[in-house]
Amino acid sequence: MCGIVAYIGREEAFPKLLSGLKRLEYRGYDSSGVALMNGDLQVVKRKGKVSELEQAVSGMNLTARMGIGHTRWATHGAPNDVNAHPHLSDGGRLALVHNGIIENYDILKKALTKEGYTFQSETDTEVLVNLIDAIQREENLPLEEAVRLALTRVVGAYAIVVMDRDDPQKVVAARKASPLVVGLGNDAFFIASDATPIVEHTNKVVYLKDEEIATISLGKGLDIKTIENEQQRPYVQELDLKIEQLEKGGYDHFMLKEIFEQPQTVQDAVRGRMHPIEGWIKLSGIEEYANRIIHAKRIIIVACGTSWHAGLIGEYLIEDLARINVEVEYASEFRYRNPILTEDDVVIAISQSGETADTLAALEIAKQRGALIYGLVNVIGSSIARLTDAGSYIHAGPEIGVASTKAFTGQVTLLTLIAINLAHKRGNISEQRYHQLITELSQIPQKIERVLESNKKVEYIAAEIKDRPNALYLGRGYNFPVALEGALKLKEISYIHAEGYPAAEMKHGPIALIDEEMPVIVIANNPSAYEKIVSNIQEVKARKGYVIAVVPEGDEVISQLADQTIEIPATDEPFSPLLSVIPLQLLSYHIALMRGCNVDQPRNLAKSVTVE
Ligand code: M6R
Prior knowledge:
This protein is of the alpha/beta class. It contains 20 helices and 27 strands. The structure holds 5-amino-5-deoxy-1-O-phosphono-D-mannitol. 5-amino-5-deoxy-1-O-phosphono-D-mannitol (M6R) binds next to helix 10.
């Protein structure tokens, strides 16, 4: 959602805050701002990207050794200068940045208004900073104690950092359901929503836990207490993150870089977990709970967005290979519909960020009801990773482009590995089939390399359809979720309306949409349904639709029918999504670029959705 960064040390704070905000911009980019402890609290904030803030401060004297910064994804109040963070308390004593939502802000605001507080913005954040101010004044408390008491009255999610003009050597940070990391430098401390602004300064970090409050002052260091006022010992960890992973590395956009990283993503997802020659798969999370997982009555997958599409592929994989009943749920629906769960169920949460509020809430319900909860998460140490009983990290490295690409491939790779592993452990597949599957999985990275060679062709096709207002994506079986994912990618970065559909469902409605204006992208690399897909293409062509087909290399039938084809290497059907999604990612990338859209930071979106 929003990005938070703070610095306290002996060097100039502003350059560190600015570079930190640029790193965090993927989390939200409708406005940004900083507050600097400069004798008084100096606040500068602007609507728009961090570059607007950078322009706004040119020529200003920003000398300070301590400051807080924020890049926003609006929840309460329109994106404008006034609603941008940091927010000052009435009177200007405190400055605060916030990621999350204060659900009871309205009641708190009314009470504060009665006490005489006035508000400049429409945000819940300004209510929180005034609440802290009111408690601090009433009881003459140190900042950290006022923050603690204020948070006991707050309902909702927060990661906050606060500074007090009257106590200028200290920052206080706290979190609940929104992440916050403290970096321990040389006579300097950093606080951020994730480690990306910290890694260039230090690799020693402390991940704050829910309802912990960190007080940092130079000389005294880091002190952590819980909201219940219990002292905590900071657990210092070393970051496993390299700066190169956060840069574009010669690519024009993070999204393109991440698409091209996917051969490596697949390799990293299986590294140390599978040996095609020795013929083993070892997933420590599965080993640890082998009995419960192998004998699970049901596997329920909960996720959102692209991760939900990966979950649908997981359903095909696990049911097909391991013969366990799988249900795939939107986390946002699951959490509110009183689901039936027992101790015989395994709930798998899939999430790139590991912070998606709905997925986290769905898991909490599953945990309360006794199901085993398993995480497939990319971000190490994230909230979902910490909540689960067991899990497997995707190891895709930082994904900065808001449109998820390599995380999806990593998720599907792991689901494939889990399905093969369970199928083998449950005796559902022969030894020969088992070896065949893991051998083919080990060849997927090279096959993705070959798919990526079609980039120029995909760019040419993109130019053909970039001005069409709609697009239809069709797939069958394993490739139906890929059709959904292709449509989502196009929608979110090019703002073209797109629908994903099971190819055979087309004739039950969407066929009415087809005319010469409608590009229809057909994923046609399922060997088991090839003839049926050919028939679906015939149906589209009979209505003059413009067909772009993803076909197996050397295909001769569909290439006669379709307007354009993109060839991808043949593979065993369970692996086909790992190849067929690549040209769809490239297609949406090129179309968005040609339409002048911001590929890495599409409008209205944010990388991780930490609010409902
Ligand atoms: O971090 P998560 O995987 O939990 O995020 C889920 C969705 O918000 C995410 O996949 C979203 O749909 C992406 N923008 C898709 O590209």
